[in-house]
Amino acid sequence: VTIEEEINLNGVRQGAKNILRISNINEIFKRVVTCTASQTTTIATFANDVYETVGAIDIEDSKYIRITNKDDSNSVELAVVTVNTTYQIKLDANQSHILGSANDLMLSEADTSPSFGTMDDVKSLQINPGGNAVDVEVFVASA
After folding, report:
1. pLDDT-based confidence at 50, cuts 50/70/90?
2. Which residues pair with 41 in a beta bridge?
3. Helix (H, G, I), strand (E, B) or coil at 99
4. Whether this model's pTM surpasses 0.90
5. How far apart are the first and last CA of the chain?
6. What would the DSSP string read from start to end of 40-87?
C-alpha cells in the first residue's frame, strides 16, 4: 500500500510518501456500490465464522480496508459499526478512509477522555449518502 501526498507550496515540493507492506495477502474484496439517496447502505460485513453470514469477510484475516467516495461533488457519511459501538465520519467527494484489520480495531466513547480500553471487532461498514445517490468503493485485502 502506498500513500503519497504531493504538494507544491511556493515553488517547493512538500508532502510525504509512506509504504506499508502486508505479506501473505491471498484474498481481496472489491466492489463499487451505488448508495441510494436518503438510505443507509451496508457496503461490507465482517464475521468470525464467515460460513454463517452470506458474503461476510473474515474478521481475523482482514489486514487492510479502504472506503472511497467516488462522487465528484457530494459527500457521504461512513459508519464503522461494531457489536457495541459505532463511529461516523464524513467523506467529502473523492476522499478515502483507511482502516487496518477489522479484528480488535476500535473503541468508540461518548466522552472526551479516552479510556484506551478493549477494542471491538468491526461488524459492518455502512454509508448514508444524504439526498444524493453516490458511488462508494470498498476494498479489503485479507490473508
Report:
1. confident
2. 127
3. strand
4. yes
5. 15
6. -EEEEEEESSGGGSTTPEETTTEEEEEEEE--SS--EEEEEEESS-EE
